[in-house]
Design a protein that fits this description.
- With about 350 residues, this protein is α+β, with helices and mostly antiparallel strands.
- It contains 10 helices and 12 strands.
- The protein has a 12-stranded mixed β-sheet with strand order 1-2-3-4-5-12-6-11-10-9-8-7, with helices on both faces.
- α5 packs across α8.
- It is globular and about 70 Å long.
- The relative contact order is 0.16.
């Protein structure tokens, strides 16, 4: 019988040799999921694992075989006032070690955290490029909460004339465009907390999640995490001139560790301001800035729920194309515990 050992992995206490083994594991998993991307660098990995914001609680385990890491499990929950019922998890196993009971062993540890923290619902996402994940979730009896896609834009194919037209048509007499590079300005922070709540209007499909109610402290913790990871954030916003109210925003993230890829984050416009071209204005102005100030960027990636027709329409007009599909699954803790009790192996 093959011998292996499961140990907790604490990024704050891990030794250089632990990180080196973790990096080798991660790069094998990512090569399967993102074959066109360059491998992760050691500094990038260490910064990412050590920069988790304090309101995010993450427990991590790795499976060792000799000096090699062959599997990993992560349980994550937010120590906030909303979504106290929810715990997210992720399990990854090297291809040659799948179907040998490692995922079940890791899931047992994840379920123990859920029990301790009184989290009744577990949620995980699977990648269309790795069918083993979907098969595992189906064995658990999980149900689909949402199907989404990573969509990618090749900037070499971007229609710059389209960007010009969208900006020309913008209602500039009623609204003004603005930009925050890096941390949010302190004097705007209360308004930005309210602005970010626009994302609670995004499609949730069958996901059993509550509105996220951001706090100023959480936003500052996120910014500290971004700084630790050397990730730069640009946030472009539109403000109604008459009232001074923020009407919508879009944000992008760029890292020197992955200089050719820009990640599109949130884009949202409050319902009362929709139908006036503000979303197109935001996206076009941001892409123009990227072309001007980040010439090394070759592609933009974003994630969209497949049900989010308005945002998909804008993205497809810009030239974004589906790159891969994700399925977010949800399963009650009681059902997971039943699986762990009854499933062999």
């Amino acid at each position: 019988m093959t011998q292996y050992e499961i140990k907790a992995f604490d990024p704050q206490a891990a030794r250089p040799s632990d990180f080196a083994a973790y990096l080798a594991f991660i790069n094998r998993i990512e090569a399967e999921a993102w074959p066109e991307d360059p491998p992760t660098e050691l500094e990038e990995l260490i910064r990412e694992l050590r920069a988790i914001p304090p309101f995010v609680v993450s427990r991590r385990w790795v499976v060792w075989h000799d000096q090699e890491i062959i599997a990993r499990g992560v349980a994550t929950f937010w120590n906030t006032e909303d979504n106290k019922h929810l715990l997210s998890f992720d399990i990854a196993v090297l291809p040659e070690w799948r179907r040998q009971g490692l995922a079940k062993r890791l899931l047992t540890l994840i379920a123990e955290v859920a029990q301790k923290e009184h989290r009744r619902l577990l949620m995980a996402s699977t990648d269309s490029a790795i069918p083993a994940g979907e098969a595992f979730m189906k064995r658990l009896g999980a149900r689909v909460g949402q199907v989404s896609s990573t969509n990618q834009l090749d900037l070499a194919l971007l229609d710059r004339e389209l960007l010009r037209r969208w900006q020309e048509r913008a209602p500039k007499t009623e609204f003004e465009l603005g930009l925050w590079e890096g941390p949010y300005p302190e004097e705007e922070l209360d308004a930005i907390v309210r602005l970010r709540e626009v994302m609670n209007t995004a499609p949730r499909d069958n996901l059993e999640i509550e509105d996220v109610k951001w706090t100023k402290e959480q936003l500052r913790q996120i910014e500290a995490s971004l700084a630790e990871q050397k990730t730069e954030r640009w946030t472009m916003f539109v403000r109604e001139r008459k009232t001074g109210n923020l009407a919508g925003y879009t944000e992008v993230f760029w890292s020197p560790f992955e200089p050719e890829t820009l990640y599109q984050g949130d884009t949202g416009v409050f319902p009362e301001y929709r139908g006036r071209g503000l979303g197109k204005w935001l996206k076009a102005a941001m892409l123009e800035k990227v072309l001007r100030d980040r010439p090394q960027v070759k592609r933009v990636r974003t994630g969209n729920a497949n049900s989010n027709a308005p945002m998909l329409k804008i993205n497809y007009e810009l030239g974004f194309r589906p790159y891969k599909t994700w399925t977010t699954w949800q399963v009650e803790l009681e059902k997971v515990l039943e699986y762990l009790r009854s499933s062999p192996g």
